[in-house]
Amino acid sequence: MKAAILVFPGINRERDMARALRLISGHEPAMVWHAETSLPAGTDLVVVPGGFSYGDYLRCGAIAARAPVMDAVRDYAAKGGLVLGVCNGFQILCESGLLPGVLMRNARLKFICKDVHLRVERSDTPFTRGYNAGQVIRVPVAHGEGNYEADEETIKRLEGEGRVLYRYCSAEGVVDEANNINGAAHSIAGIVNDKGNVLGMMPHPENHVEDIMGCTDGRGLFAGLTAHLDRAA
Ligand SMILES: NC(=O)CC[C@H](N)C(=O)O
User: In the chain, where do the E strands start and end?
Assistant: First the structure.
């Protein structure tokens, strides 16, 4: 695996992401500053990490989406390259047009920082192959704008094409409004683009990868990506 982690002013999860990737894939990721106009040669995974790019001004991710490096990411994704966006990274991918929809203020207008449960909807994708379909995992969230919304037609397409990969649920896997922490449409926590090579998700799998974190449920995502990329190499 040759991962590249994008770094924007105000991002604060890039080291957590680097640690998780190093730990699980065994490879050191490259850190790529937002002003770069190209990605390191041979990059096979681009990660857009979480944080507060540009202080969340305008709308979370709106300014970062216009950074020079995002043109290179758009080209890379158009050629089928894998892109993973977590939290602010998900917001940046939506704002840059790489994913449909938008992340709005949480329904109760409060920043939410806690562990949540997610149901993994399918296991036949590079981003979920480390899990079983229907598996419930526990990972933390930390966001103020995680309420995923899109027009009715887009939501219908996402559902019809099986592009919702992660959904908020109870510890038992029940998806309902009581467990929909931020009010997202259809309890959506993570989606992929139409080609299936770009994933955006609000929760932070990189923060549940070691025993010392109290849970290792996030490992499956990185283990799945590693297995997918090692097989392709
Ligand atoms: N942890 C994060 O990436 C936070 C994302 C964004 N700043 C928000 O509050 O919604």
Answer: 3-7, 30-33, 45-48, 82-86, 102-104, 112-120, 136-143, 147-149, 164-169, 188-192, 198-201
Record the tokens describing residue 222, joined without a space. Answer: 């990185």
Q: Which value does ipTM take for this structure?
A: 0.97
Torsion sign over Cα 131, 207, 192, 42: negative
**What pLDDT score does 232 carry?**
73
Residues 96 and 87: their CA atoms lie apart, in Å, by 14
Mean of the per-residue pLDDT values of the chain: 97
**Dihedral (CA of 205, 198, 202, 186) sign:** negative
Start-to-end Cα distance in the chain? 8
Could you tell me the pTM of the whole model?
0.98
Our mutation pick for probing the ligand 1 site, out of 57, 86, 87, 141, counting the most ligand atoms within 8 A of Cβ, is 87
